[in-house]
Specification:
single chain; globular; binds zinc ion
Amino acid sequence: MNCPEFKKLIFEYMEKEMDNVTKKEFQLHLSTCKDCERDLMEIAKAVSLFRRLKKIAVPEALDSKIQNLFY
Ligand SMILES: [Zn+2]
């Protein structure tokens, strides 16, 4: 697995919608790539914040920050 593939799968991983084979490759890349590890941490933080705030309002800055990671 390479970095762009990894980044595409981050949301799937966090939604726990990943099959075991992909998950193994994902975790293997995670353990060998500091860049992707940092990205995963940042996105996990943003997503948990996003979920906490969802009932109140969706902050636009956060929304576009997440989008920037993928487009
Ligand atoms: Zn990577």
